[in-house]
């Protein structure tokens, strides 16, 4: 009986450690394969809210997962809320390696929620652009975002304040942060987040339906930007909804595995949030290159049909994005008038 208990606890410990390592590998791998795009499309652009959010989402998350892996693999831990004070008999290595389990749980929870919120803000900016800066849509998104984020933070705060942390369990030959007294309703933390993802996904799908109904495929040459925005938004929401739902189901199934899936929710929100920004800027660059090529080969024709200069300078979208979106808006209103006349 005791051997089975020890084996079960060790299985949870190993699964948690290597799940966090796997999630961190996803983030690091994405950083490496997109570094050239980041330098070309982000570093060389002018400063904006979008650029700031990109760097926070990319490097704050990377720093947080490095600290999490250090806590799980490289540090000794202690039960107390405050860090252990070294005594004359305590080695310097132990003094710097001691970790507070309570502090680690608060750190892990708050940084994870913050990383998800940053990625969601990025997606709200893109949806705001997709709806042609519609203030009603913005109000819906911001209000829902504030309510759901506050609800999730409140649930986490209440739960963590009552959680007991142990760095050592009898008969378990390893040091690890073991949470105890975790309430069964902790899975409710994911319900507000899933609710917000559902709202955003519905807005993206509805915008895609509107575009397809009025103008055909959003991926045709004149609407590539719209197509990329809709595609990335829908893919993000579907992947993140599945990730958050998995977290909820795991927490309902066995609360002992509550830390196993958390790392993947942070990793996927970080990676997909960054890809949304990079993909849109990549389309901008391609459109700018095509425009210059057409100007060189047909300067006379281009002089009769002026196009806006694609300067990357807007918090939500660049100038060329906004010009195309305004054109889409005019086309959409015209089509509505045609349908009304018919």
Automatic annotation (TrEMBL):
The chain crosses the membrane at residues 104-125, 137-160, 185-206, 234-253, 259-278. InterPro entries: DUF6533. Keywords: Membrane, Transmembrane, Transmembrane helix. It comes from the Eukaryota. Residues 288-307 are annotated as: Disordered. Residues 18-62 form the DUF6533 domain. Residues 288-298 have a biased composition (Basic and acidic residues). Coiled coil: none annotated. This is DUF6533 domain-containing protein.
């Amino acid at each position: 009986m005791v051997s089975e208990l020890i084996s079960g606890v060790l299985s949870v410990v190993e699964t948690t450690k290597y799940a966090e390592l796997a999630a961190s590998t996803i983030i690091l791998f994405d950083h490496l394969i997109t570094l050239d795009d980041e330098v070309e499309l982000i570093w060389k652009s002018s400063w904006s809210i979008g650029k700031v959010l990109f760097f926070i989402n990319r490097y704050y998350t990377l720093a947080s997962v490095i600290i999490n892996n250090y806590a799980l693999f490289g540090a000794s831990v202690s039960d107390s809320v405050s860090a252990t004070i070294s005594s004359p008999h305590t080695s310097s290595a132990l003094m710097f390696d001691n970790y507070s389990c309570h502090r680690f749980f608060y750190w892990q929870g708050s940084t994870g929620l913050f990383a998800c919120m940053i990625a969601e803000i990025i997606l709200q900016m893109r949806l705001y652009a997709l709806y042609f800066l519609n203030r009603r849509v913005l109000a819906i998104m911001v209000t829902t975002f504030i309510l759901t984020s506050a609800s999730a933070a409140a649930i986490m705060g209440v739960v963590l304040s009552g959680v007991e942390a142990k760095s050592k369990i009898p008969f378990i030959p390893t040091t690890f942060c073991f949470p105890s007294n975790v309430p069964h309703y902790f899975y409710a933390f994911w319900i507000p987040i899933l609710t917000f993802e559902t709202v955003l996904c519905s807005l993206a799908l509805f915008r895609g339906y509107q575009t397809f109904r009025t103008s055909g495929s959003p991926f045709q040459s004149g609407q590539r930007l719209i197509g990329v925005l809709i595609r990335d938004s829908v893919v993000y929401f579907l992947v993140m909804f599945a990730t958050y739902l998995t977290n909820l189901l795991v927490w309902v199934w066995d609360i002992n595995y509550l830390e196993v899936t958390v790392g993947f929710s942070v990793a996927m929100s970080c990676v997909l949030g960054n890809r949304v920004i990079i993909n849109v800027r990549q389309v901008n660059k391609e459109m700018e290159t095509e425009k210059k090529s057409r100007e060189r080969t047909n300067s006379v024709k281009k002089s009769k049909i002026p196009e806006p200069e694609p300067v990357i300078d807007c918090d939500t979208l660049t100038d060329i994005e906004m010009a195309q979106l305004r054109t889409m808006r005019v086309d959409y209103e015209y089509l509505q008038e045609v349908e009304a006349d018919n």
